[in-house]
Amino acid sequence: MALLTISDLSLGYDSRAIVEHLNFTVHKGDYLCILGENGSGKSTLMKTLLNLQTPLAGQILTGDGLKRNEIGYLPQQTAIQKDFPASVREIVLSGCQGHRRFHPFYGKNDRQICASNMERLGISDLADRCYRELSGGQQQRVLLARALCATQKVILLDEPVSGLDPKVTTEMYDVIEELNRDGITVIMISHDIHAAMHYASHILHIGSKIFFGTKDEYLESDVGKVFLMQRKGGEE
Hints:
By secondary structure, the protein is an alpha/beta fold. The protein has 9 helices and 9 strands. Strands 5-6-7-3-8-9 form a 6-stranded mixed sheet, sandwiched between helices. A 3-stranded antiparallel sheet has the order 2-1-4, covered by helices on one side. Helix 4 packs across helix 5 (about 135-150). It starts with a strand and ends with a helix.
């Protein structure tokens, strides 16, 4: 059974559609990369999957026991967020809010989940550090640990390596790949076509034409060939 089934979805603002008739499924263990030009609706789709925005039409169905509030999210960071004056532990622990329901305080189980995910991301030694004092790569690991506190199943990543240097970028991709191998389903918006072609199991391309399928099918599709050619030309 699919974790997410998106059926005839239309996305947009003020009744103006950006994307129409979007159909795709996400199964346990998938590594789905969402590609497309700027303004094509990728971030709007992410917000809709997180229930932060209402679709203009269509359905988003969950399965295999997944609830909409059990999806972890690593957003693109703003300058204000990077300067947030809280400890690493406090930020990671805040990822537990979604499944605390009406309990006003964090419990023992929340703190165990927090500690486990900090260890998983190799940031336990940073627990008492102020978030804004960390490097960009360390901050992204903190936010990823926070996202994992919200879920055991699916994480949504919006440009998770934006602004990171090449070495830290590779390390971040390796961490995400390891999480995927451990059973976490990954849905990632990316402008990094090379990384998408290396790591993804499936591709959703949003634009004037929509494509959904395996990475190999994308490479053989007209949509994929044109997009890859355009990106290659832009790098020359």
